[in-house]
Fold:
Amino acid sequence: MKKLALAIIMAFTFSFISCNEDVNELNEASTDLRLATPEVKTNIGTYKGVFTTLDSEYRGIVEVEIRDTENNNSVTKSFHTATIEMQTGDIAFATSRDIVSAGQLTNNISFSSDEVTFVFSVNGDGSNPVISNVIYNDTTSDIIIAKHTTRAPVTGLNGSYNCIGCNVSQKTFNFVIANDGTGNQTYTTQVNFNGQTYSNGAGYQNNCAADINEPTLTFCNAFSGISSGTNVGFEINGDPNKTVTWDGEINYNNEAAGGGNDCTSIIGNWNFTNLNNPAQNKSGVFTSDNTNSCLTELVFEGFGGATQSYTTSIPEFVTGNGYFIKTNGDDIVSRNVQLNGIIADYFFAAQDIDANGDPLPVYLTFENINVSSYNTIYFSAEFAEDDDGLNEDWDNPDYVHVDYSFDGGITWTTFFAIENDGSTYNSAPFIDTNLDGIGDGQEITDTFEYFKASFDASTASTVSIRITFNLDAKDEDIAIDNVVIRGKN
Structure:
């Protein structure tokens, strides 16, 4: 089975069984659970999913084993087990001794321990499993699960999101995928939002491909909604005018099972839209927990905080038609710049940069990042450009590059580039897929969109990454947001 990627879940704690006999039985049963081949089209077998408390304090991975207790005389198979692996790495357990028959409707069997209780139901063929009435340490909680089989393996991913400008702590954003993670497919989310848990969120992944520098990692685009219809992940209280959407990246290890390198991670942006009251619109960033992540975050820059992780080669400015500045758009509104998909308020924008008398190119740099523990470095960011319709203005000398330099050196190597299409004058900006100075890939539009590139850093102790700007006229512009630099060891 290939290992997938995605992310997000909340953990709760199941207590150990009180008597020694039950503990021994449970440990033996857990061993059987790991070794057993999951059954297909029956209520008997393994179910996997995610958990969260309503307050988002705990999130975790859930695994439930249902046995044919009516027709099994084995002591170790005379009860059902549930395990939770929390985001802290702790593992807890719970059991049920209710009678279950293979192929029959399983209705409201009760799991319990000193810390948690819940009720489990499932159809006789293993479809529509439901866990309800979840209470953990007197706290209302939620679990979503799916039947896990060799034909349709289930993976739960745990993570959280922030709400920019909301003055609230990280909240749960979990995923459950009922497939092997390879290629286009759908998934379900579990999200705590505004005091409620929404466990019916819909999403999908596509455009999966192995990374050129780390071929054991596969990267997929992740979106809310369904690929052939709406982009809505879920509605708030069933109101179609109040919706949550998201987009991001999932990555996972694609080696054969048993290789010891199983990992998953996800990162992206979310938006809450209230069509009745746009002043209530919110946004932020979601990311998987670090417990089993393929990549380690080294730098995140959303351009909205009081502190910043970058330096610029010239002072930020706005003058005439030109600007080079961290902005919420107010500074450049008179330039008629129109951009879509802005996460939170702030981003970095540039246009006609030599209008202030500074020579080009100019730089925005993330300096001296410790990469001694990593072999490959990943740079990602969202890019947009004020679309001028049929009157695009990027000329052949215009470009935006992203470069790296090792260990304080003065040699810079470009590994990501945006160029015009090779015309002498007036084209749209495009990704330069082979770094030959000609934009031949995806067009940069007026909607912020995520792009990623990587490079080998196995010989370096530190790396500096700079964004190089060479834009020298009105309407030759670029906007950048949510820069993330990550490492893979």
User: Anything to note?
Assistant: Residues 20-35 form the longest helix (16 residues). Residues 311-488 form a domain with the Jelly Rolls fold (CATH 2.60.120.200).
